[in-house]
Recover the amino acids of this structure.
């Protein structure tokens, strides 16, 4: 697993917490917004995810990759701002992140596949300790059939969700098979009590690269 701590690319992540209103309207506005983002200096791609389960705590998760924090700041200060998430959800968790861990399997799904997003709540001062417990389960997940890849994001500065893991699988069935793996469950059981996980399966409803 590669780990990156140096300055460079950043990812803006916005997590809309349920209940959300006018979800289809937000998705439509976000799709239109992608056309503007294409021309923004330093923009590298964006994806909007919608939870497969209506009862999941987090219903929409948007990620936008930028070459640098300066490029992101310039876009935010200009006319590249997207639809206001606060209009559609009472609680929006937003932060700037860096990818601190990445695994790519080389496998590709036949279709769209499925994305597992796990946003972690924990004290900032215990992030490194938590990552020590998380890495063994991530390693096991990366060895499972149907695993496509993952990125662990760590917030730059204060954020209500200091860590956000985004993992792709070839299918829902591949993800379910991993959950049935005894070794994965054993490693998953080593979950520090100070951290709250919020895993969920998502579909990509808008994307540009």
């Amino acid at each position: 697993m590669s780990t990156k701590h140096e300055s460079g690319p950043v990812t803006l992540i916005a997590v809309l917490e349920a209940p959300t209103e006018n979800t289809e309207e937000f998705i439509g506005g976000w799709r239109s917004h992608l056309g503007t983002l294409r021309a923004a200096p330093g923009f590298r791609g964006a994806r909007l995810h919608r939870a497969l389960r209506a009862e999941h705590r987090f219903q929409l998760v948007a990620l936008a990759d930028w070459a640098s924090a300066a490029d992101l700041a310039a876009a935010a200060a200009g006319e590249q701002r997207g639809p206001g998430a606060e209009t559609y959800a009472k609680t929006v968790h937003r932060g700037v992140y860096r990818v601190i861990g990445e695994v790519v399997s080389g496998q590709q799904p036949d279709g769209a596949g499925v994305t597992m997003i796990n946003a972690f709540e924990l004290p900032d001062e215990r992030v490194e300790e938590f990552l020590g417990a998380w890495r063994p389960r991530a390693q096991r997940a990366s060895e499972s059939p149907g695993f496509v890849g993952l990125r662990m994001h760590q917030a730059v500065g204060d954020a209500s969700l200091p860590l956000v893991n985004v993992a792709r699988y070839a299918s829902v069935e591949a993800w379910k098979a991993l959950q049935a793996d005894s070794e994965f469950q054993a490693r998953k059981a080593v979950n520090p009590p100070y951290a709250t996980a919020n895993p969920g399966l998502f579909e990509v409803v808008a994307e540009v690269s």
